[in-house]
Amino acid sequence: MSTPADQLADEHQDSVERAAALLAQSHYCIALTGAGISAESGIPTFRGKDGLWTKHGEPPLNQYEEFSADPAEWWQNVAERRRNPDELTATIANAQPNDAHYAMAELERIGILKHIITQNVDGLHRVAGAQSLTEIHGCTTLLRCINCNTRSPFDEIPEIFPPRCDKCGGIVKTDTVMFGEPIPPDCLQRCYEESSKADCVILVGTTAVVSPAADFAFAIGQRGHPMIEVNLDPTIISQYCAVAIHDKAGELMSRITAEVKSVLADDSA
Ligand code: OAD
Ligand code: ZN
Options 3.40.50.300, 1.20.1050.10, 3.90.1640.10, 3.40.50.1220; which CATH number does 4-268 get? Predict the structure, then answer.
């Protein structure tokens, strides 16, 4: 008798093996991850069937303008939200990494994955143990100076609105990148450096439609290197990928990582 898990295993086995072979052969593989990798941690995605924006519409595009116009008032609102968190804020604050985050941390630990660029602000890659990581859209648990980009933990509501940077006196905001806000230049630089070195990229849980994050992954493909996709639904990049597997990231990334380890063990035998 076969269980649903067996059927899933059979359906994707060939693709899992091909993805693992590409990863094992690579010299410098990086990853781009998005909201889909945190879906199994209970955090809703933006787009797609149950996406936040599909249900509630996109947020206003002038968030950074509003912040810049009156940072003190913006901080009042942040403080109020922190005292009375909405459902999404509370969900992110309580979320734990899932199998996909742990599998990717393991891929890094065994020397295959060299860097993760994540578009997620939930910090779950870090909690799962990822070391080489760029949170290109920031992280909810950090503060950042808009002048010198110095980051610090966001543990408590600051006493003065807006708080000022200890190093340069610049205005401090939360690290998460708002609509209309430039991506912090240090993040862009790191993404550029890491993707320039890459000879393989694995995209996990992202529609890959948001620039500049997706551009770093495409650039690797355009240089002729393999792109691997692990995503619930097909995306605009599926057709360009050497391997595209469409199912949940938790189980797939665990299987791919186990397969990579088995290939490496065979190679060294
Ligand atoms: P999206 O919401 O656009 O896409 C999430 C993708 O994850 C979809 O393609 C789903 O099919 C897939 N997915 C859902 N559940 C999954 C699961 N269990 N396993 C694997 N895949 C699953 O999210 P992103 O591509 O991350 O930026 O969106 C990119 C950026 O758009 C976000 O960072 C956000 C927004 O602009 C900012 O807020 C700055
Ligand atoms: Zn500063």
Answer: 3.40.50.1220
